[in-house]
Amino acid sequence: MVGMEPDEQHDESGEGEPGEPSGRSALSRRGALAGMGALAGIAGIAAVDVGGFAYARGWLRPDALTPSRFADRFENVYGRHDGFRRNHAKGLSATGTFASTGAAAAICRAAVFQPGSVAVVGRFSLGGGLPDQADKPDTVRGLGLLLEANGQQWRTAMINIPVFTDATPQGFYERLLASKPLPGTGKPDPAKMAAFLDRHPETAAAMKIIKQSPPSAGFADSTFHGLNAFYFTNSAGATVPVRWSAVPHEGPPAPPAPPGGKDYLFDELIRTVAQRPVSWRLVITIGEPGDPTHDATKPWPTSRRTVDAGTITISAVQTEGPGNARDINFDPLVLPDGITASDDPLPAARSAVYARSFTRRATESKSPSEVSVGRVVGQVRS
């Protein structure tokens, strides 16, 4: 997990099988109907290829839940789309910088937090396994980032909801099954979803929190949350639990988006970046004793101390293709010295599923991306 080499930036470097990178193990009705509509709206929430296994932690038998079976389930729910990620399939690549304030160096010795700027490779996406899905305001939006300093990489994937819907990999897997749309309605089976929520009150509670945070108008003004807890360790060896978020900077109004349009969220972002960079503050929240580090469905108190670590600026976006973020695995366990995983079971599960997803799509023929920067920029210039 510590210090990926520069030539490991892209998946071709050997993240083909689950657990190979860094020596990790191979796999690491009450009120139910009321919450079903909102849950259906984020059925594709698996946030950045989020999937789940707890084999490395001894939670599940290896014959009960494996990376292949989880990838199979995504394909069963969304269909098979060769060359695309099994979740967050629709996306747009991006490049920019991270300018550190130096403030986070007090709690983390990672080189990326030293004062100065480093390059960023990013990816904006929508949750779900359909690469040509129509943009909708309530579909979960993702932002994946790769930052590198002193030869060490930090990869993080964030989404625009304040808590995650599932506390465990098994819970996520069960929700994915319950969320499969019915052919006639395009919505989940009410009975299956009600039964799932009855078995998982933590998801029902998370849904109430999510409903209190309606989505913003587009990508550029979305706040993206890391959700999972990690540990920061400083140069003196002191360790603290943290979560992080990317909070949008206020800037000039974005160009007006035309009404409707299948790709209107992405098109608006492309038009905006063509006229000005967009930026976010990277805000680190420091946990205190008793704050849950193992459960992403539970928020930390808003009174917790925060650190303004610096500014993420996206200055260019690109249609996904060879050599850009299309070929990057935003594995949450690719971490620099100074950042380590907590007892949250989801990052290890995501890491395993991401690897399996890449293994499949790396050998498949690539279809053109639904999101085209050239088409939108051409409209702006004309």
TrEMBL record:
Annotated segments matching region Disordered: 1-27, 360-382
One Pfam family here: Catalase
A GO MF term: metal ion binding
TM regions (residue ranges): none
EC number(s) reported in the record: 1.11.1.-
UniProt domain Catalase core: residue ranges: 54-380
Regions annotated as coiled coil: none
Low complexity composition bias: residue spans: 371-382
Active-site residues, Swiss-Prot/TrEMBL: H88
Keywords recorded for this protein, A-Z: Heme, Iron, Metal-binding, Oxidoreductase, Peroxidase
GO biological process: hydrogen peroxide catabolic process; response to hydrogen peroxide
Cellular component terms per the entry's GO annotation: cytoplasm
InterPro entries according to UniProt: Catalase, Catalase_core, Catalase_sf, Catalase_SrpA-type_pred, TAT_signal
Keyword hit for Cytoplasm: no
Acidic residues composition bias: residue spans: 1-18
S-adenosyl-L-methionine among keywords: no
Highest taxon above the source species: Bacteria
Binding positions for heme per the UniProt entry: Y354
Cofactor field: heme
Function: Has an organic peroxide-dependent peroxidase activity.
Record family assignment: Belongs to the catalase family.
Protein name per Swiss-Prot or TrEMBL: Catalase-related peroxidase
Species this chain originates from: Mycobacterium conspicuum
